[in-house]
Please model this.
Amino acid sequence: MIHSVSNSVYSTISQNLPFYRLHNFDPYPYLEHAIFTRNGGVSQAPFRSLNLSTSVGDSLQAVKQNVRHACQAVNATLNQTVSCHLIHGADVLTINKANRQQVMGQADGLITSDPNIYLFLRFGDCTPLIFFDPIQHAIGLTHAGWRGTMKNAAGATVRAMVNQLGCRPKNIMAVIGPAIGPCCYEVGQDVIAAATETFVDSASLFTHRNGNVDHAHFDMWEANRRQLAAAGVEQIIQTGLCTACRTDEFFSHRAEKGSTGRFGVIIGLKGDA
Ligand SMILES: [Zn+2]
Model:
């Protein structure tokens, strides 16, 4: 078992709940964020313990308690959080004070530059992409599994931040959060074929082990990094944390054969408004 460690995040604790923060976000006191782990909650196996998803079969009461606890840890109320129905696409919703709802429609990316809106998505192998532009005071949070990656959800989020919030790509910091890594993400011909259509030099995103041509290990982290770079983002931060290697800390749909929970990522701009 590989135990990946990351230099870009550090572990902290608030309201008795452990979570990760990014060193790169520390200089901005008005920015609140957390990458939660699976620890510190009340859910029972196989959702032990900080499962934040109501769509995996966990007790609704346990999830509600976990969500409340997660919100408290970042000094947010549940009403300030905004989520959406994830559909493995590349649609990005722009949230503001006027249109915000706790659960928006179907999308895989959320962006805002309004304070007191806490973007909140759940993950369990798919890539969390976390965005922050300190010049425009804009943030984003995107869910990119392999399907979303093939639709360039990363690039779509950058474009939305540019077009909707006036950001410049070179000012945006983009974080590739804990997701299933090239060490563990074995895929079949469907993913290999889709990547061939999507990426220049797609072969370099795959490693074939033991001469196996039908299956390969896919580097989804690197695929997203290339899309962010192609969109003009210069500050790309890899957490390098593999959810499947680290089931002690994260939920992994693949490593736990579909019977597991989802951990959360929250980001918001603090303000008086
Ligand atoms: Zn791994």
User: Anything to note?
Assistant: Helices lie at 60-73, 146-150, 153-165, 189-198, 220-230. The CA atoms of residues 150 and 198 lie 6 Å apart.
